[in-house]
Structure formats: C-alpha cells, structure tokens
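Example record

The entry below shows one chain as it appears in the dataset: sequence first, then structure tokens.
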Amino acid sequence: MVFAFLLCGLCLYQWNREVALHKEMAAMSEDLYKKKENIQGLELNLRRASDEISRLEQVRKDLIQTKMTNEATIASLTNEVERLIRQKDAVTAQLEQYKKALDTANESIVKQNEDIKRQNEMLQSIARQRDEKIAELAKVVEEYNKLVKDYNKLVEDVNRMNEQAAAAAAAAEKKK
C-alpha cells in the first residue's frame, strides 16, 4: 500500500509536471505564433520597404537624368543667351550707325527742301514775271493788231481813193 501510495504520488507528481509542461508548451506555442506573426509583419514591411527603396532608387535615377538634361539645357541656353547678347550688341551698334545715317539723310532732306522752296519761289517769281511779260506782249500784240487793222483800213481807204481818183481821171479823160 505504501508502494501504491508512492506510485500514486509519483503519478500525481508527473501529472502536475505534465500540466505545467503543457501550460509551458501552450505558452511557448502562443509565443511562437506571435513571433511568426511578428516575423510575417516584419517581412511584409521589409518587402514594402524594399519596393519603396526600388521606387525611390528609380525616382533618384530619373532625377539624376533630369538634372543632367537640365544642366545640358542650361548650358545650351547660356550659350544661346551669350550669342543673343553679342548679336544684340552688334544690332545696337548697327542701329546707331543707321540712326546717324538717318540723321544725316534728314539734314540733307531738310536742306534739299529749303532749296526746293527757294527754287519754287524763284519759279513763282519767274512765272509772275513771265505772266507780266506775256500780258505786256499781249498788249503790244493787241496794239499791233489795232495798228495793222488801222493800216489795212487806211490802205483800203487809199485804194478806194485811188480807185475813185482813177475812175474820176478816167471819167475826166472820157469827158475830154
């Protein structure tokens, strides 16, 4: 009986130990489950972070390419600006020359206009003098025509008188 009690005590002790081991194993299983869940979450985060890193790396490459393109564009635009500035300076110098030439031409035109005014005044004066001379000539021609008319009338009168004298002389000769 002692032996049976001892055996019962041993069984009780093993069951207690088994219950404690099962509790410990259940706690470890739960802990393992939580750790696996945590690992899965971390792996998912790692994948997301890896994808984000890849995306950011691609964005960085794109930005580097854009930067290189922008630098090339800036360099070409800088060269273009410098060329345009040189061209503007040349055009400005040429514009100054044209302006001086235009001023000289304008002065020449003003002088020519003054000469033309003087010539117009002279032509008007000459035209007035011509008109006066034509008027005088017309008066002289009119007087000449009047004299010619008077002369022709006088010649007619003389011819008539000569005819009358010749007729009278012929009549007197006939009477004689």
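Notes for this example: The first helix runs from residue 2 to 175. The radius of gyration is 70 Å.
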